[in-house]
Amino acid sequence: MNKCKRCNVWVADDTMVCPLCHTILTENKPMEQSLDHNANKMQGVQRPGYPDVKKNTRRFRKAGRILLFISLAVEMLLAFINYLTFDAAPKYWSVVTGGIIAYLILTLWDIFSRRQGHIRKIYTQIFVILGLLVLIDYSLDWKGWSLEFGLPCIIYGLVLAIIICMSVNSSSWQNYLLMQLAAIALSIVDVVLHFKGYFHHIVLAWIALGLSVLLWSGTMLIGDRKAKNELKRKLHI
């Protein structure tokens, strides 16, 4: 059992970091623990303690493994049904259900996981949703709608998410400059695909590119030197 001298609490498990203030814990010998406990007992002071901080983590991981097992079992059953009804249209509908199940699991993991920041979670959602749309499009006899219409809509969502995050975290607005560049890069890819002749509706792509460039330009102009310095630091220029 270790003690945090800053919070004056005892941690029941073998972790070396305080779950409250994230300070390195002090390893106490059994004699020191006994003396401290007896002193507090004589003074009528109840020693503050903190429960096993890994208990909830173990429960979360166990629940995640159970959910993963159930999801795999359901997908195997759906794949078997798809095999029995393969002549029906669409032929590969079990691939779509598998992608949806995988997306739901990743989304739940992102919601309950505390190791990843919200920026990384936004990136994960963007690429997972895009991959899911492409998978559905491919499974339903490729028409290209996942990139022609889906990609611009994802860029719109990314721009909106950046604006919301910058409004909520106004003191750390410069942390979202790279996300703005990512939105511009995705928009350029969308426009290039249209110029290559893969798609025909180019209006959505141009709107996505215009919104991305407008947001980035406004941030750079308003942020001025602070935005430029942050961009240089992020890009190691």
Automatic annotation (TrEMBL):
Provenance organism: Anaerobutyricum soehngenii
Keyword match GTP-binding: no
Annotated coiled-coil segments of the chain: none
Pfam families with a match to the protein in the record: DUF6320
Name of the protein in question: Zinc ribbon domain-containing protein
Segments traversing the membrane: 66-86, 92-110, 122-140, 146-169, 176-195, 201-223
Keyword annotations: Membrane, Transmembrane, Transmembrane helix
Keyword Membrane: yes
